[in-house]
Amino acid sequence: MSALCLENVSHNFGTLAAVNNVNLAIDAGEFVCLLGPSGCGKTTILRLAAGLEPLQAGKITMGKTVVANDKADLPPEKRSVGLVFQDYALFPHLDVSKNIEFGLKHLSAQERKARVLETLEQVGMVDYLHSYPHTLSGGQQQRVALARAIAPRPKLVLLDEPFSGLDVRLRNQVREETLRVLKENNIATLMVTHDPEEAMFMGDRVAIMNKGQIVQFAPPNELYSDPENAFVAHFFGEVNEFKGICNDGHVATPFGALEVPNLRHGTAVDVLVRHEGIVLGEKVNGTGVEASVLKSRMLGKSNLVDFKISNELADDLYVKARLDSHTIPVVGNACVLELDKRLTFVFSAKTPD
Ligand code: ATP
């Protein structure tokens, strides 16, 4: 049984189809990320699941309970869902303990006190029981917001870009802590993010959205190594792109011919190669081509290198490669580049929208 299940959910704002026939099921205890460009409908899905937006079409179920369909629409407080938004939304006039107690009115005073302490213990904030939100750092406020969301012991938590207000170092730490707390409590989570790295880091599965629809829903490694289309390949990593035409099961690229057995003769194709899919080779044969080094940037864990390829198949083609940080090609030198076929994808060329 799914902790959250959306079936054929659509939502319009006037003539705009913000969410267009979305199907999504999240397992108990699973962490799912909704990832996509600005305006693709991520927050609207979260608001529909929370009951903050009335459902127009489809069905939403949590466990065995239908929370919204054409006959019913349970209000947010009846859905047993924890919410954490980008701005933490703590009550400024209540201290940490009162902020968390707010969602525990169904418990006795004694139970409430015990639950507040237990939850603050989990997020490492027990010492701040009587602090007011404005006296806490962003990371501390985020932890309190998480504690408030999980204190009523919901089966599902909805997070909307909860880490975007934190600086990079703190963000990584708070991400790990959040993940640990949610997993320890076996809480299913749907988190909105527009950051592919964050989605890869946190998601058991990631739903990639574009224009109100889910384009692919899969674990991060699958999205990375087996994207369903060019949009996913672009969104979930960095790619070089070449154009080509399918000719008798092959497409000519600046790196030589690639096999495309599933595409019809004459089909226009986009060839996408991840930056990590261009590697230094030994000699020019197969997909090995000569290239000159234009620019090299050391980025800590990798080296981003710009190359120029000029051969009979490509006239001044510029490509980017992500090499390991110990490989620092000298600008102006010639190298041999090869394709890693596992990180090379061929799709029918996208038709203009
Ligand atoms: P972002 O990453 O920028 O937050 P998003 O993917 O979360 O974007 P939504 O906030 O769900 O996108 O919005 C989807 C579309 O619906 C956008 O085009 C947005 O302008 C529109 N929209 C959202 N809320 C409303 C509203 N209350 N009234 C009218 N249009 C809205």
UniProtKB/TrEMBL annotation:
Residue runs in coiled coils: none
Pfam families on file: ABC_tran
PROSITE patterns xrefs: ABC_TRANSPORTER_1, ABC_TRANSPORTER_2
GO molecular function: ABC-type ferric iron transporter activity; ATP binding; ATP hydrolysis activity
Domain called ABC transporter: residue spans: 4-236
GO biological process terms held by the UniProt record: quaternary ammonium group transport
Signal peptide bounds: none
Record's GO cellular component terms: membrane
Name of this chain's protein: ABC transporter
Organism placement in taxonomy: Bacteria, Pseudomonadati, Pseudomonadota, Alphaproteobacteria, Rhodospirillales
